[in-house]
């Protein structure tokens, strides 16, 4: 239904588009092959069948930043810049639950191996101590103290932390891994 208004305003163009851009083995092509416009001299390269996309899940109000399947693939969890986490039924596409509470965008979601626990990481740094990223994404932090400034090409679109290692994915297609050692103050 996302394209309903375009189809209502221009039904003939939509009809022709279905013929020109539809897969070569589609039912529309088979039934209306003779109706394909002859004024199109160079047709696009097409697939034989429709894609394997099963469904499109809609409900977040902003960019989806992380998704994860349950181990049995029955559920899909998504996190978003809209500061929410949604739990979806993977077979029907129904939104089962929307979780709110983060004050920053959700950067990562995951489910435990038995699917009984859900974890979400956010740029608000809730529930996180130790190594992390500042809310403005300009610094690697340790216990909320800025320790390493990140040039723009290394600013994260996603982050993972494991003890004293931080992995940063960037919008420039790079993944950066950093090992951080904190010096302990000298005992006097």
UniProtKB/TrEMBL annotation:
It comes from the Eukaryota. Pfam families: WD40. SUPFAM superfamilies: WD40 repeat-like. This is WD40-repeat-containing domain protein. Keywords: Repeat, WD repeat. The keyword rRNA-binding does not apply. The keyword Repeat applies.
